[in-house]
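Final report, closing paragraph on structural work. Over the funding period we assembled a curated collection of sequence-structure pairs, and we close with a single example.
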Amino acid sequence: MVNDPNVANKISHKVRTYTYEQELNWLNSKLEENALCYSMIEKTTGEYIGNIEIMEIKNNIGELGVSITALKQDRHFGTEAIKALIKYAYEELNLDGMELNVYATNPRAIHCYEKVGFIKDGMGKTEEDIHMKISR
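Its predicted structure, as stored:
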């Protein structure tokens, strides 16, 4: 996914090609740190959809990250996964809310986040980003 320009340009300001070894190292580091990173698998086909993650927790607010393969976009998988992760964050982790940064040039993602209850909360990490948040 990170090597697909249709996906990478929506999740990174520094798009580059990753080798198999680099991707494997990333995966192993997530496993070693017991990261809150999950793969999404389509129920009916068993096909890989993408990843969803609580990347960091600060002040009891989790930072959401989601990435969906180009072929699985626009099928409401993101909405379903985000709802499930928010429920998990509240019920199992007892978080007070979630936040994220999204490129202003990614209206599909913004629409998805708004559908599940995120609201725009100013500029994100860069001038190209929008910060969004959701609270209990």
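The chain has one domain: 5-100. The longest strand covers residues 48-58. We thank the funder for supporting this effort.
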